[in-house]
Structure formats: structure tokens, C-alpha cells
Amino acid sequence: MVEADSGPKRPRDRALRARSVVVAAAAALALASCGAVMPGGGGSSSGDGSQPTSASPAAAGKTVKVVFIGVDLDEVKKQTKLVTASVGDPKKQVEALEKWVNDNGGLGGRKLDAVFRMYDAQTDSPASEEKLCNQVAQDDKAFAVVLTGQYQSNARPCYAQRKTLMLDASLVSNDQALFDELAPYLWSPSFPEYNAFTASYIKALSQEKFFEGRKKVAIVAADTPVNRRTVGKKAVPQLKKLGIDAEVGWVDTTDIGTIYQGSEQAAITFASAGIDRVMFLGGSRLASIFATIAGSKQFKATYAISSFDNPSFFLNNPDTVPADTMNGMVGIGFHPPQDVADSEMPFPGEGVEKECLDIYEAAGITFETREAARVALPYCDSVRMLKMGADGVDGPLTAEAWSKAVDADGAGFQTASGFGNALGDGGHAAAGSYRVMRFADDCNCFVYEGDDVPFSE
């Protein structure tokens, strides 16, 4: 029942309206961020409703054109007044990677022609992503595209239908069914396969006693093909085996309005059911928006957390959610640039992360923090993976030939953006391990605990 406005309630109403404005701003920033996420396409439709064909064209001549998609995060920050580390100049970062590739043998002896295109993610829609896909595939005639900031369900099928190899540098939830459906075109050089992530996430939460004493848990879930598949076939049955029933709040992620409405309804439903444990499957916008709305509805819960929920956003923007939201947060992390502070994991690290940072430093590009490199590191992963595959091709460079080379040599690949490796033997997503992650009161930060744990189903 909705009560009529009265004098004493108006200050609170104004506060809620102000909070709603902040939520919308948070969503806008999350939508445009490389680290923000909505699940990848899934389903069976490509841009024109047909399936990708098996034969792809060879890269023409001695030059391989690759388009890098970027989003203007600094402009979004100006408009929303929200806080996030500046990612620098992605165009210059792409130029540095292009020079490194060409100075080190190119792509199997072929010259990399890197083209940078800025995408206005604030006006994201199926139509705008179809337009960008056509521009990259048909106008640019790109052999490959490095994706950031594209989250509509038609985007990845569109590139596959147009036979364009995708190095997906967005923190999106692509599952094995989608990789198989769009093969050989879709690959993730920095992040995990979504089924393995989901299974490992629930297993870790169980081990960390997140479900202890509970018979029911709430799942805030993006209503997309990949997420429907993963929640229905993986998450709910796995929870059932643990003796836990799942109350799923499906959220239409078409735009900010539908996300707000779906999150509000989910909060009301969970509160009515007396649930006090909430986990998210579907991305960082859901976590930040739901937690804010839940606070306004006086719904109190302990939340699970993962890299898909963009932990750094909660730390950087504490005014967008109630102060106690992070109390007891626990889950898993696989993407240090948006998980933990440099004080908790020294930056720069050794190994591949440092190798990527050295490439940028040679071009005069440095990063004050690991969070500031959250776009640059996945870009570097994409280029390194592209080069590894191309160097292994003997003959015409096609998506099929490149795919076979990565499958043969991928076991030696290491992502600079996370832990472990899961390429080779049919794997299309590079991140192979995670660490337990929780919010620590003493440092007011997220911390990793224990050793790397391989993703597994």
C-alpha cells in the first residue's frame, strides 16, 4: 500500500529521489566502463537472424587490420561526477601495442594495422551496436575486433555472422555454449568462461559459510540468454544440491529504467520472503543499483561479491549505497585491476603484467595504479593472444586457422589481467583461476585470501 505524502515524510522522499538520481548516474558510468558488465549475447540470433557460416576470409596481403573499440570513460565521469580511476588515452595505448607487434615480427610476419574507434556507450542500443558492427566488418573490413563496452545481445552474433574474429576485452559473461555457437570467432583473452565461474563461485561461497543456517538465497540475475541458461542449468541445480532454494529476481537489462524497475521489484520480493543472503549473476550495474535500491526499501542483507560486480566501484563511490552494504561481503576475484588496492597486491606485479606495462612504458605511457590500467591490460592480453595465434599459422591467416593455432599453443598463454590459464583443448576464455575475496573492515578494502584456485565445473 502506498501512503499519501505528508509533511514529515517529504524530507525522506526528497532523499530517495536524490538517491535515484545517483543510481541513474552510477548506471551510466557502469554502462560505459570496460569493467562494467552485462552478460554476452547467447541465444541463436545474429545481426540479421542467421547463423555464422564456417568459412572465413583470409587476411588480405601482408597487413592485418584490427579495430579496437574504446569508450570515453573520462567524459562519463564529468557528466556523472562519480569517481573511478582514469584509464588514460586508449588510442595511444593501441598505438603502443601496434608498434610492439610490428617491431617483434608482426602477426606471423604480417604487419598489424591497428585502428581505434570510440563508441558512445551512453547511447548503447541494439541498433547502435548493429551499426558499429557493420562499420567494423564492412566499412573497415577488419580481420579482427577488440571489444570493450558492447553489451547488447546482438553484438557478438553480428560480428560472427560477418566473419570477424572477436577478442572480447569486456568483462562480460560468455559461456561455453556461446563460444561454441559463434566458433571460431569469439574469444576472451582476459576473463573466465561463465559456467566454470558460476560453479566455482557457488562452491567458494559454500566453503566460506555464506549459506550457513539458510534454506534460501536470493539471486539478482540479468534477464539475458546467457544468464538464463547459466542460472537455470548451473546455479539453481548446484544450490539445490547444497540444500538451498533460490529465489531469482530477473532484471531486464535493456536500459537504466528497466534495470531500476526490475531491481526494485526484486528487493520487494526478497524482503517479503525474509531472505537475507543475496548474490548477483549478470554484472556490475546490478550489484550497485540493487544495493542502493534495497537500502531505500529498508531491505537488509549480506551480499556475495565477484569481479563481475566491480568491487572498486563500491569503494570509490560510497555515497551511492548505504554505508553498511559491504559488511560481510565475500566471494571470488579474478580481475585484480578492479578487485583489490595496490597496497593489497603490489603494483606492478611480476611476469606478464610487467611485460605488458613495459610495452606501454616504452611508448612513454605509465599508470599510477593497477585500476588505471584496467583497460590497457585487457588490450595487451588481446594483442598478445592475437599474435600467438597468428605466429602459429602456416599459410593463409583465417579465423579457422588462427583458432586451431591458439588451441594448439594456448596452454602456454598467461593473462596479464588475472590468474591462471584455461586456453588449449577447446578453451576460448583465458582466465583459469580465482582467489577468495572479501571485504575487510580494518582497511576498508577488498582483499584476496589463499592461493589461486582453478575454475572448474
UniProtKB/TrEMBL annotation:
Taxonomy, superkingdom: Bacteria
Stored InterPro entries: Peripla_BP_I
Gene3D superfamilies (alphabetical): 3.40.50.2300
Full protein name: ABC transporter substrate-binding protein
Organism of provenance: Aeromicrobium wangtongii
Source organism phylogeny: Bacteria, Bacillati, Actinomycetota, Actinomycetes, Propionibacteriales
